[in-house]
Every structure is written in structure tokens, then in C-alpha cells.
């Protein structure tokens, strides 16, 4: 059996800057990572090169950039507000 792990998320820094990340591992080893600024993927191992090429050709980078800068940030702000409301009740 094999294991694929995905990690992605976003941060809103105090100065309002948004950071986003998306990376994957295979069997506990780094496999591929997304560079949001460059809209490219970095293959951590030679086996990831075909995936990198395919995703870049299919426009996956643009979709991840949009997700990390828009959807992820929207949900993060929503959860921050939920947290503030919950803390206000205590």
C-alpha cells in the first residue's frame, strides 16, 4: 500500500499580505510543490516531473493560485470571525 499526503492552506499576515501553499508527498517523501508567485510546480523527485508537466499544461497552476488567493482566504476570514464570536461568548 502507498500513501499520498496533501498539504495546502493560506495565511493572512498582519500587514495584509496573503501567503498560500500547496504541496504533496508520496510515501512520506516530498513529491511536488506549487510556487504561487511563479504559477509553476517544483518536482521534488524525478518521478514527479510528468505530473509537473501535465499540471502546467492543463492550467492547474492558475486554478490553485485562484483557490489560494480567493477561496482559501475567504474561508479563513470566515473562520476567524467564527472564532471571535465564540470567544466573545465566553
TrEMBL record:
Principal localisation: membrane
Domain of life per record: Eukaryota
InterPro entries referenced in this protein's UniProt entry, alphabetically: MHC_class-I_related (IPR050208), MHC_I-like_Ag-recog (IPR011161), MHC_I-like_Ag-recog_sf (IPR037055), MHC_I/II-like_Ag-recog (IPR011162), MHC_I_a_a1/a2 (IPR001039)
Signal peptide positions on this chain: none
Membrane topology summary: Single-pass type I membrane protein
Keyword line: Disulfide bond, Glycoprotein, Immunity, Membrane, MHC I, Signal, Transmembrane, Transmembrane helix
Location in the cell: Membrane
Disulfide bond found in the keyword field: yes
Gene Ontology CC: MHC class I protein complex
All copies of domain MHC class I-like antigen recognition-like, residue ranges: 1-87
GO BP terms in the entry: antigen processing and presentation of peptide antigen via MHC class I
UniProt cross-references to PANTHER family, sorted A to Z: MAJOR HISTOCOMPATIBILITY COMPLEX CLASS I-RELATED GENE PROTEIN, MHC CLASS I-RELATED
Record family assignment: Belongs to the MHC class I family.
Protein's UniProt name: MHC class I antigen
Species for this entry: Gallus gallus
Amino acid at each position: 500500500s502507498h500513501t499520498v499526503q496533501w498539504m495546502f492552506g493560506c495565511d493572512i499576515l498582519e500587514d495584509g499580505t496573503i501567503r498560500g501553499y500547496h504541496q504533496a508527498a508520496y510515501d512520506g517523501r516530498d513529491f511536488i510543490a506549487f510556487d504561487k508567485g511563479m504559477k509553476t510546480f517544483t518536482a521534488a523527485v524525478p518521478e514527479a516531473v510528468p505530473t509537473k508537466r501535465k499540471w502546467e499544461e492543463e492550467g492547474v497552476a492558475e486554478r490553485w493560485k485562484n483557490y489560494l488567493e480567493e477561496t482559501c482566504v475567504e474561508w479563513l476570514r470566515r473562520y476567524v470571525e467564527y472564532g471571535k464570536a465564540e470567544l466573545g461568548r465566553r
